[in-house]
Design goal:
Blueprint (H helix, E strand, L loop, with lengths): L2 H16 L26 H13 L17 H13 L9 H13 L2 H12 L5 E4 L15 E4 L3 E12 L6 E7 L9 E7 L5 E6 L8 E12 L3 E2 L5 H17 L8 H10 L5 H29 L7 H24 L15 H9 L9 H12 L6
Parallel strand pairs: 1-4
Antiparallel strand pairs: 2-3, 3-7, 4-5, 5-8, 6-7
The structure holds flavin-adenine dinucleotide.
Length: 387
């Protein structure tokens, strides 16, 4: 038995003993997702037990070093962990912007003190983070951002406004891009961390087309941020921001993976929609593309393992994964027929298909739009003239 096989046996046995049956059910509403944070209230005992068991072993962030709350798994071991979780349909014990975005940036740019402090908090799910990048007028052209941090010796005083800040009203802390030099566009931005409870921070939820309010306008009015809360060098926050965006795009691209045809097949089995030859042809095309997407993901993972990842790969994955997920939901709506359009009926669980379908429209905007992803692919991968 190879070391990896032995590791798989150990992980399988541990999951069998520690992952409660309720945590192997598909996520069906927002409460099923464990976001952690100061105000987190577990939905049930099983959710809490699953989180605690994983925190104790470093399994909320299995590939982070043990000193920072992880389990120190190698990339190959982490892949085994993901496969064994998927095999039993286990829910992630903890979902957070800290794990997906800030953590990787801190691992690369943080001081040792910041890593020990913030990464362990993230791994334990103690602090919920939000991302303060976009501003009114600065989305795709993020580098034009205006929120300003005025130098006052041992601290900055931050004034400005962010927009589309996901879960800002629920987050404990924010990782935020702040201009600290007005004369220098790219090298005049710093990456700051601060508590959302700091005086002068306010949020106002924005309602989405799906009826939910997952994001906010966020206002900073003379917010005091100590100088120790900068990540990376002064005025070099753009480097940290770009690196983090790569991880964000990888995370969002995950929407393309997972279930290929099961959910759509289940709808068709209920209402006989498969009789429609056009729908059948569209399903077949979708499945081929979903397989190609999965193969591309595997290839990129292998390239990353041997240090040959192209820096623009997350852009490709983000474009492909989000466009695929939008198609998946278009097909679910087509298969569901007029019932799927019901907004509040019991049969649709309060409009789940249509609300999810509308939510996917944002997939190709959040974290950078599809048009911008294609620009990057044209320029950095295809090297097209004039791109
Ligand atoms: C659900 C959701 C959650 C989000 N969460 C967060 C968050 O937590 N924190 C945060 O900071 N931001 C967040 N955002 C904001 C997101 O990052 C921006 O919406 C995105 O970067 C696009 O910026 P914009 O909305 O200003 O659009 P714009 O940049 O104004 O773009 C408008 C249109 O112009 C196109 N366009 C712009 N520039 C180009 C170009 N150079 N070439 C071709 N086409 C172009 C775009 O593709 C788009 O179609 C979120 C957005 C959504 C939808």
């Amino acid at each position: 038995m190879s070391d990896l096989d032995a590791f798989r046996t150990e992980i399988r046995a541990w999951l069998e003993a520690n992952c409660p049956a309720e945590m192997r059910e598909p996520v069906s509403d927002e409460d099923d997702v464990c976001w952690g944070g100061r105000n987190f209230k577990p939905k049930n005992e099983a959710q809490k037990a699953w989180l605690d068991a994983c925190v104790a072993r470093g399994y909320t962030v299995p590939d982070w070093p043990k000193a920072y709350g992880g389990a120190g798994m190698s990339p190959a071991e982490a892949k085994v962990w993901r496969e064994e979780m998927a095999r039993i349909g286990a829910r992630p014990p903890l979902s957070s912007f800290g794990i997906w975005m800030l953590g990787p940036a801190l691992l690369k740019f943080g001081t040792e003190e910041q890593k020990v402090h913030y990464l362990n908090q993230i791994a334990r799910g103690e602090i919920r983070w939000c991302q303060g990048y976009s501003e009114p007028g600065s989305g795709s052209d993020l580098v034009s951002l205006q929120t300003f941090g005025e130098d006052r010796g041992d601290h900055w005083v931050v004034n400005g406004q962010k927009i589309w800040t996901s879960y800002a009203d629920k987050a404990d802390w924010i990782f935020c891009l702040v201009r600290t030099d007005k004369a220098n566009k790219y090298q005049g931005i710093s990456f700051l961390l601060f508590d959302m409870a700091t005086p002068g921070v306010t949020t106002r939820p924005i309602k989405l087309i799906s009826g939910a309010s997952p994001f906010c306008e966020t206002f900073f009015d003379n917010v005091v941020v100590p100088k120790s809360q900068i990540v990376g060098e002064l005025n070099r926050g753009w480097d940290v921001a770009k690196y983090l965006l790569g991880h964000e795009r990888e995370m969002i691209s995950g929407a393309g993976g997972g279930d290929r045809l099961n959910a759509i097949g289940a709808v068709c089995a209920r209402n006989g929609a498969l009789h429609d030859p056009i729908l059948r042809a569209e399903l077949a095309m979708f499945d081929v593309d979903a397989l190609a997407y999965a193969a591309m993901g595997e290839k990129f993972l292998d390239e990353a393992k041997v240090g040959r990842a192209h820096p623009a790969q997350p852009n490709m994955m983000k474009y492909a994964g989000t466009e695929l997920n939008k198609r998946r939901h278009e097909l679910l709506m087509s298969a569901g027929g007029s019932t799927a359009l019901e907004w509040e009926s019991n049969e649709t669980g309060g409009g789940k298909p249509s609300r999810s379908w509308l939510r996917t429209k944002a997939n190709s905007i959040e974290g950078g739009t599809s048009e911008v992803m294609l620009n990057v692919v044209a320029k950095r991968i295809l090297d097209l003239p004039g791109a």
